[in-house]
Fold these 2 entries.
Entry 1:
Amino acid sequence: MKIRIITALIFALIANSSNAALEVTITKKDENTFPIAVSKFKLIGKDAQNKDISKIIRDDLNRSGRFDVFIPDAIIEKYQTDFWKTKGIEALVIGSIEQKSSKIYQLSVSLYDIYSNAELFTHSASVDISGFRKISHQISDDIYEALLGENGSFNTLLTYITVTKNAKGEKTYQLNISDSDAKNAESRIQQKSPMLSPVWSPERRYKDKKIAFVSFKNARSEVYIWYPFVSKKLQKLPHFGGIVSSPSWHPSGKKLLMTMSYKGNKDIYSYNLTNNRFTRLTRHPSIDTEANYSPDGNSIVFTSNRSGQTQIHIKNLTTGAIKRITKIGKYNAKASYSPDGKHLALVHRTDDDYRIAMFDLKNQELNIMSNGILDESPHFSPNGDMLIYSSNQRGKGVLSVISVRGNRAHQLSSQNAEVREPNWSIKLKR
Amino acid sequence: MQNLKTPITLLLLSISLSACFVDKNAAAIIEDQKPIDAIIGGQSSFEWKQNQDSFSKLPAMPEQQRQAAVAQLATSGVDSVLYFDYDTAKISPAAISFINKHAQFMRKYPAIRLRLEGHTDPRGTRDYNLALGENRALVVKSAMEKSGKNIANKIQIISYGEEKSQSGTDESNYNRDRRVQFIYK
């Protein structure tokens, strides 16, 4: 069977790529931050002089809200215990970058635990100039893991939609990708009609990564798949002619959930990219939408108003049983699983406001996490430690990131654009 | 069933700001988890062709005639927007008499085509609102079909959900967002 393939040209008019970059504002830090010094790196060779990556690492650690990061005045080349103990610093990062050829640099970085007076790791690697940012985020993950015993979420990618208005009030929509620190931002798909719901596929290599998203390019909602790192192609998925929305990837990356309207009836379908086959997963005259797979792929969580209220339901794909999950509040929608499968992030209506809540699947407890009016589109960070969502700050859309314990937060915003519909990739391969 | 993958070729180069899409005719298979499904045409798996949009294939009414007819409808006091309550696609008896006027109009001008655009206010999630907007347009279409035979294939349904909300976060304008727009083509 043939599939509709759209070949496209996103001729990389990296339009306004400078404007695409978001600003990061840390709004809340943990009370017990970990004091760490990250020295400027020693730079050897003429072209190495502007290659210091220590700032990327410092910004990563700061943004997590779990570290207080100090910059020593001078470049530290060698670790000395006694000196650092007197400063109240508990860990030290030092490193060097030496140019080996026009594009290849030798990178070395070490992490020391000052109290136990131990070297926790030294990494040495030959790095191509194009891989500097990625390896910096990987080093941040390694530091995070060595000191806190938990996975970091630095070597990851974001995708989001920005909307700008010109003087005539005409809107322009851009689909953006960036690193987890909002740097390296690119917006290569730009159009006058709305785009929404971009989601990263779960593969861990750049070349395999895809984004599924909804576009109104043809004056109706349709789901497209974009391969941002390998080709210019866009693939448009088939549909029944009614609405198509809510794409969401199977953990294997080979299937995609989406909502389709068949003769007006909105149900959840799974689309198999390998054999171009749809499987219908729900069957009810009410609205079924916003489906997401559980991390093991054995269940889907979705929004349905089959009870007369808009509430979260889970379907066990093995038994076929569908169960209503949320009972608190009149409106609960757009749920997605935490990476360990134990919690859901969702949109919960309080009296008049729409807020982000976390739902504990075991204890059936709902905790409201945000305090906005129209908070939307929550997703967990890849390590499950943070939630990212879109919210409205003084009439303008920004992305908010909060820790699941509520003690840390930062914001991603743009001076000239509304930012919305965030999605955070799983960790990239080292 | 055999699966053929269409070779992917770059068909165009452009320096346009937007992505360009090139379509090919295509079909796909729908498979139901359970066998036999009344809703999906009585088959457990089937193919369907894209672009079976009967609406787009209908000949359009000449532009001038259409504009004159629509202007006349507006002068006679028939609005082109129907408003809805929060999170519902229900319509009142008053709305039905309003819809009937549009159905009469379509009977009077058999060549005219209608696009019903469903919209919601920005409250709630975007995907849910996309579904709700479609339900609003469908309810109107269904009421029009009851009023007049042979107009169903001349009505196209589109949902924009909250994407064309005008109110922002101004609650006093939410009621103007929750609407179905009648756009004659």
Entry 2:
Amino acid sequence: MLEIYINNRLKEKEILLMTHIVLGYPTFEASISMIEAMVNAGVDLMELQIPFSEPIADGPVILHANQTALVGGATVQKCIDFAHNVSKTFDIPFLFMSYYNILYKYGVERFAFAMSRSGIRGAIVPDLPPEEGMDYLKAMKAYDLSPIFIFSPTTSAERMKYLASFGRGFIYCVARKGVTGVETDFSSQLEKYLVRCRKATDLPLALGFGVKKRKDVEYLTGKADIAVVGSQTIRLVDEKGVDHVGDFIKGLVV
Amino acid sequence: MIDRGYYGEFGGAYLPEILVATFDQLVEKFNEVKDDPDFWREYTDIMSTYSCRPTPLTFADNLTRHCGGARIFIKREDLNHTGAHKANNVMGQGLLVKRMGKTRVIAETGAGQHGVATATMAAKFGFACTIYMGEVDVQRQRPNVFWMERLGAEVVTVREGTRILKDAINESFRDWVTNMDTTHYVLGTTCGPHPFPEMVAYFQSIIGKEARRQILETENRLPSRIYACVGGGSNALGIFQAFLDDSVELVGVEAGGKGLSSGQHASRLSSEDASVGVAQGYKTYFLQDGDGQMKETHSVAAGLDYVGVSPILAYLAATGRVRFEAATDLEVVEALSLTIKKEGLIPALESAHAFVQAFKEAPTLDPSEIVIINQSGRGDKDIFTVADAFADPEWQEFIKKKAEDYDA
């Protein structure tokens, strides 16, 4: 179970690192190089985003990566096959991240089965609140997979508890309003929010949106369990190339 | 979350968590006003003093003679302020924004009609305003960009995706998830997450309420058929709703583009090319591939050039209550030309889709019967697009000359 892995890992490290890549961006070959570099640099778990044409929760960097991957010929089946290979090759948990239409069109049950068969441990579906996700939750449960739910600073205490009651593995806490890949203010307000999240659930807390340097990860140590680095790695690949990923991640590991 | 807004299997609210609280507030406020007779009175008052409501129902005697069948009436939404039915929705949501105490509005626009209407409302109510518009649409609808900017709106060109209406909607959501405390997203059509389909249909229902009263007053009978073009579906639902319980056939006309077999169209309900999916926060028929990636759409009319369709219309299609047809770009230009010459009316390219189907069917009906066409907007203000659709050589010469003058 994902939760057990995370809790065991937390006995060795104060904060874990989760990274995010868009499958097929810039190519599937580059995706594999990035994963290899990240795992070697000490990443604890990874989100693999299956590209979608309408990623409304993503900012310009990941949006562009989604579109480029699709133009480059990334299909859902290619992504699943790719994930199957990496989960066999690398000894960390991998999660899928995508929008609900990808699961819906593939068939929610069939998608969960494919995840399970490929060794993928859970999924983050940002446009699927539990109210709309009963089929999804049922399928995830049937295959012993972790549906990751999201808290935001606008989520009430009551709703946090409601969301946590469906979540497994960990809770993904969005640091602020807005989309991915924009500046986050690592301030006392963020700390208060994380205290609020902690009160609502016993699940480990991951904090994402705007985490991009070692100082950010240090700030989160003791406040969250997992720091999530998303857009910043993709930005780095855009600007400097895949070769720089390893050193960047090593620099983040506290 | 309070209410999911399902119509059969269509609709819902597939929201990122960050927006859930904002939608809860919106649902609550909308429920408060929709049963409040004072709010509807305030709404109809402002529509009659600031816009041109009730809009007339015009008997098209020349077109009736020309078609030689049912008598043709035209509901004149083109006579609204800013030239289209979009004003109905925008003013209604504007009043709601005032009640919510927000100070800024954002909107997507395709043809530019909804953007201009929103910018106008923002100017009148004193709201800050940002309009998102795909790069392709900015190029084909420059005059509307000009007016939005004069009205004080910031127009943001969207260069992502297919650079048309759906991409402008995505960018509006991205703005909203950042600025929801001060900002309301004035969605322009009966799509998106609940409560937007219901809310926009509610404000647009004024069209059908008037049309039903008008036809009963003047003709003392109901029409046999009503025709409306369908992009997102707001003008169609606007006129259809008042007739749902009557034995009146309701016909929605989608953009057939270069023909349904060409793949270059925006026909979700009248072609076999669309399938059920979830995007932009709601479930409906989308023009998408087997993986669920949205396809490129095409129409001569920017306002119909959209991958999804109202979940309410998807439901009414499934139950058979509304029939859906498609009109091609070529048919649209012909129908537009005929209407201009016969009646001196200039429908928007979007609205002309409804005219195409009415002209096909009117001759098959008895002269004692009546059909109503919803003229959702006027075409004269889209002179650049209409002139291109007609491929008018003298107009092209004029534009070339004008460009030379600027260069001189």
